Amino acid sequence: MHTWSELDFPSLGDKHDLGQKEQERKNKNEEARARCPNRTEMGSRSRRGYASAISAGMCAALAAISAKHFSSQLVKYGFIVLFNVTMWGCYANSLRALSSLQATVTSFATNFLSSGLAGFFVFEEKLSLKWFLGALMIILGVLILSQSSTEQKERTD
């Protein structure tokens, strides 16, 4: 059995030192988080990058649809300029979160697919089986590219 004098109670000075050390540890953790974002932050950033690249592709397709759909020159060119400016803004945003290869391929694929589907649904153009097989290959290529780039980034981090 221990007596009160044998027990080790921290003094007020020790408690203050522990609080100061705990605060220093918290500050170091916050600094480390600021330098290296965690996976959820990187995933969110990547999702935003892909959303911007897809938006850029959609805007490019809408510019092409506007050129074909409207007969008034003023309206036609107004929409073309509007969609192209928006497309470049979205593309620039996608480059902040993705590699240039990912952003370009995703934007191009979205533009190609949405232009083809708009031709089919809006302008009643015929699409062959080869077109749909090509579209499927493009989608698979974009998915493979996005997965391989994500795995490579995780290995380097």
Write the layout of secondary structure elements.
Elements: H1 12-35, H2 39-69, H3 73-97, H4 100-121, H5 129-156
Helix pairs in contact: 2-3, 2-4, 4-5
Q: What does this protein structure show overall?
A:
By secondary structure, the chain is mainly α. 83% of the residues lie in helices and 0% in strands. It has five helices and no strands. It has helices spanning 12-35, 39-69, 73-97, 100-121, 129-156. α2 (39-69) runs antiparallel to α3 (73-97), α2 (39-69) packs across α4 (100-121) and α4 runs antiparallel to α5 (129-156). The protein is elongated, with a radius of gyration of 27 Å. It starts with 11 loop residues before the first helix and ends with a helix. The model has no long low-confidence stretch (mean pLDDT 82).
Task: Please give a handful of descriptors for the protein shown.
157 residues, mainly alpha
Write a short abstract of this structure.
With 157 residues, the chain is mainly alpha-helical. The protein contains 5 helices and no strands. The longest helix is centred in the middle third of the chain and has 31 residues.
